[in-house]
Amino acid sequence: MSFLKQINPFENALKQFDKAAEILQLDENQIAMIKEPRRITEVNLPVQMDDGSIRIFKGFRVQHSIIRGPAKGGIRFHPEVTVEEVKALAFWMTYKCAVVGVPFGGGKGGVVCDPSKLSRTELQNLARRYFAELSDMFGPDQDVPAPDVNTNPQIMSWMFDTYSMHKKRFIPAVITGKPLELGGSEGRTEATAQGMVYCVREAVDHLGFGLKGAKVAIQGFGNAGSHAAKLLSEDGAIIVAISDISGAYYNPEGIDIDAALETCRQNEVWTLEGLEKNTRVEKMDDPMKLLELDVDILIPAALENQITEANAPNVKAKLIAECANGPVTPEADEILEKKNVFIIPDILCNAGGVTVSYLEWVQNRMGYYWTKERVNEDLERIMVKAFDEVLETSKKYQVNMRIGAFILAIGRVTKAAELRGLYA
Ligand code: NAD
Question: Domain range holding 160?
Answer without folding.
Answer: 17-182
